[in-house]
Amino acid sequence: MFKTCIYCNRNLGSNEAVENFPVGKRLAYDQDRGRLWVICDVCRRWNLSPLDERWEAIEECERQFHDTSQSFSTDNIGLARLPAGLELVRIGRPKRPEFAAWRYGREFLRRRIRSTIIAGSQIAVSVAGAFVGADIWWVFLAGKGNRVVARPRDEHGSRLVVTRKDTKNLELVPWDAPDGWALKVPHRREEKTGLIFAKGKGKTHEVYLTGPTAIRAAGRILPKVNEWGATNAQVKNAVILLEEARAPERLFAKVAEDGGVKTVFGFDKDTSALKDMNNNTRLALEMAAHEESERRALEGELEILEAAWREAEEVASIADRLLVPDHIEDWIRKYKKKLTGDPSR
Hints:
Elements: E1 26-30, E2 35-39, E3 46-48, H1 55-67, E4 71-73, E5 77-81, E6 87-91, H2 96-131, H3 137-141, E7 148-150, E8 162-163, H4 164-167, E9 171-174, E10 181-187, E11 190-193, E12 198-201, E13 205-209, H5 211-225, H6 232-245, H7 248-258, E14 261-264, E15 267-270, H8 279-298, H9 302-320, H10 326-340
Helix pairs in contact: 2-6, 5-8, 6-7, 6-8, 7-8, 8-9
């Protein structure tokens, strides 16, 4: 059973209330469609559970939802807090725009608030430092472009190290593929573990991803491109774009064909770089990437979910080592050999 968020690689926590699914402190479920998600406490993203772990847990969630007195329900969505501390989100029969706005709206708003607070704090500290004669603004900018923000996989399973600087050249382009589009992903082939964060290492390379691989990679990288989140109005506009495309994968094909649209001084400018597209388009693509990955998983392509969980667990293990300098790890390995007497360890 998975333990790590697919998107931010943080631990999802645990619960003792749902015996058949002891993962997470906030679960969302749709009994009619047979879907069960774990909502990450850190990034608020929805992690779809594997198919074989879902059905009995959904029945148990439904039973406990109705048994608790601490619940609130509308016609389409219900919230309940169990005595053990677990929160349940019950999805009824909302229309797609309503569900998408409810699911993503809070996440994008929270992301916007967080980025604003961080930026404001950095400006305040820099100004305060300037008053006392200390130019510390460079501390916030040093190495920022080389920080690793995502580690998607290519079609051969190799990990692509994507830095913040690389996301500026992320593109959607027409391609000779069944879906008619490809995701151009600039990346590094190696990374270096720093004291606080990992940095990309080596020259920048490019790869063109298609199909499910591109969808999964887009789902990993787009949250970093959309790090400033969105207002409720922008979320609604993004949902409209998603609705007009009629299917998530069609939205990617349409944006790749049109090149995206950005309004500059009252004129629409065509561009294929995601960073230059307007917020509504980028937000809609992020929603589409998540929904398409879930659709494929629900149709039986469980290898997509399994690959995502394996990647999340692997990245989590990397993150766990970020605060451990190399010389400390060497010291641990050295004394572990002495203690165990095993030269292979």
